[in-house]
Amino acid sequence: MAEAVRSQSHDDALARHRRRQIFDAACRVLKRKSFHEASVKEFALEAGIAAGSIYVYLESKDELLVLIAESMVGELIEALPSIRERAGDDPRRELLALMRAIMDVIDRYREAFNVLHHEGRYLSRRPRYREAMNRAVDPYLSAVRDVLERGRARGSVHFHDSLSAAHIIHMLCAGWATGGGSLKGIAMDTYWKEVTGIIEGRFFAPALPDAGK
């Protein structure tokens, strides 16, 4: 029994390692060509995996998009404890630190993120992948909503709906990559200053009345 557990643990670790290899390789390939131009064989060779063996870890080329989402979200989730510790139990500081971490991850994998942003919308319309994409993204949105809700409980963060607010925050962070062409020549710190101004003016300022009233 113990031997079986150790074997399963080894297999799981190997699978995680291989999927990380594939993710890193995909990020490199997507810097050179589009998702549709690249082949599964090219991703496999870049990862140092036999072309046929990649299907042990991915059912299809489209599942690579799910892997990109899982990998990027995974990096962010790993950073959450240190972000919260550095924030000193201040949800406003934590929200800004979380957003900066999101932007750092997006910047690190900019090309892969843009592919995910564009292709993922269409993939999510297909029942086969919708649930997998939701599972990959949910920890990310939940982390943002958690900070927002704790801030509201303390009276220091103001919003009407946490899910809507989390999506707005995501779009502000995503804009650094999706607006890459028009932002050419703009430093990330410059973009970040505008983002913090929006967050402080909307979410940290005294509560606003409902727009419809």
Describe the protein in words.
The chain folds into two domains: 1-60, Homeodomain-like (Arc Repressor Mutant, subunit A, Orthogonal Bundle); 62-213, Tetracycline Repressor, domain 2 (Orthogonal Bundle). It is built from eight helices and no strands. α1 (2-32) packs across α2 (40-47), α1 crosses α3 and α4 (91-108) packs parallel to α7. It is mostly helical. The mean pLDDT is 90. It has helices at 2-32, 40-47, 63-87, 91-108, 110-123, 127-154, 162-178, 188-204.
List the helices and strands and how they pair.
Layout: H1 2-32, H2 40-47, H3 63-87, H4 91-108, H5 110-123, H6 127-154, H7 162-178, H8 188-204
Helix pairs in contact: 1-2, 1-3, 3-4, 3-5, 3-6, 4-6, 4-7, 6-7, 7-8
The tally of domains stands at 2
**Span between N and C termini?**
65 Å
Number of helices: 8
- Which strand-content bin applies to the residues? under 5%
Order of helices and strands: HHHHHHHH
Provide the CATH top-level class of the largest domain. Answer: Mainly Alpha
Secondary structure: number of strands = 0
CATH superfamily of the largest domain: Tetracycline Repressor, domain 2
CATH topology of the largest domain: Tetracycline Repressor, domain 2
Give the class from helix and strand content and strand pairing.
Answer: mainly alpha
Question: Per the principal axes of the C-alpha atoms, what is the gross shape?
Answer: globular
Q: What is the residue-mean pLDDT, rounded to a whole number?
A: 90
